[in-house]
Predict the 3D structure of the following.
Amino acid sequence: MKNLFAILILFSVFQMSCDSTKKASGNDQANCPSIQLLENNKFNQLSSDNYSLETVRQEGKEIKIDVTTTSKIISSNIYWNGAIMKSYPPKTNVKIVVKTDGIPASETLNQTLCFDMNALKKSSDKIELYFLDDEETIMLEL
């Protein structure tokens, strides 16, 4: 009975440490929310406030995009029209739309945008994204 009690205590301590680890990693994600890829047939007509795309990288099913702006970002999204070019690897065009508060900052601001790319999974295991307006590409492993 004492062994069972000791095992339950150890299990409880282990469970609490796992929960605190999950909460700590969750706090990092609060700065970089995942946003679903949105289909928009008129994405060429979308306008964005000024930003500079610095780097694009894949982390799991998400892409992380480092941008710089001169004002605080209040919203961001990524759009595509649903068209996937029949090539190998398949390719699609995407557009990032960033909206800022318009208040000039005293220094350049760096921020990481995060987008969930699961909407592209139905097309292929790999797909090349071409970022309109930024002339950047990234190969995604889905």
About this structure: Residues 4-30 have pLDDT under 50 and may be disordered.
